[in-house]
Amino acid sequence: MLRDAFLPNLLIFAVGMAAAWGYLRTGRTLRGTLLLVGLWVLADVALLARFAYQGGEDLFFLALCAMQAYALSEFLLFTYGRIARRGARHRQLRESLFRVAIVHFLRDELEQAQAVYRRLVRRDPWDLDAAVHLATVLARRGRSRAARAWFRSARSLDREGRYAELLQEELRRFAARRVVRGA
Length: 183
Prior knowledge:
This protein is an all-alpha fold. The chain folds into two domains: 2-84, no CATH class; 88-182, Serine Threonine Protein Phosphatase 5, Tetratricopeptide repeat (Alpha Horseshoe), CATH 1.25.40.10. The protein is built from eight helices and no strands. α5 runs antiparallel to α6 (128-140). It is elongated, with a radius of gyration of 21 Å.
C-alpha cells in the first residue's frame, strides 16, 4: 500500500517542495512559503503519528493523505499556471482585457478598471503589469491598504527590475503617509 511505501511518498513530498521553490523563485512568496511550511508540518505530523504515538494510525493516514493531496495539487496548479500563460490564446485574451482596463482607467471608470485588473491577476498571478495597474487603481480609489499590498506583491514579482523605481517610490509615499498620520 502507498502509505507504507517510503519512496513514492518521498517523491510526492519532493514534487511539492519543487512547486514551493517555483513559487518562491517566481515572486509568489506567500504561496510558496505557505506550501513549504504546510508540507513540512503535515509530514512531521504523519511521522510523529506513525512512530511516536500508540494507535496513531488514523492520524498518520489523514496527515499523509493531506500532504500528498496538497503537494500534488499545488504542483499541478503551478505547472498549469506557468504553461498556460505562454499559450497564444491566453496572450490574446490578456491583451484584449488589458486594453479594456486601460480604457476604463483613462475614462476614470475606476471600479470597472479594478474589476478587469482583478480578473487579469486571477487568470495569471504572475502578471506584473496587471498587478501594478491594479495597485494604482486601488490607490486612486482611496483604498491605500489594498494598494500597498498590491505594490508589495508587484515588487516581489518584479524579478527583472522593470518597475523597481516606481514601486519603491509608491511604497515610500505610503510609508510617508503612515508617518504623517501617526504623528
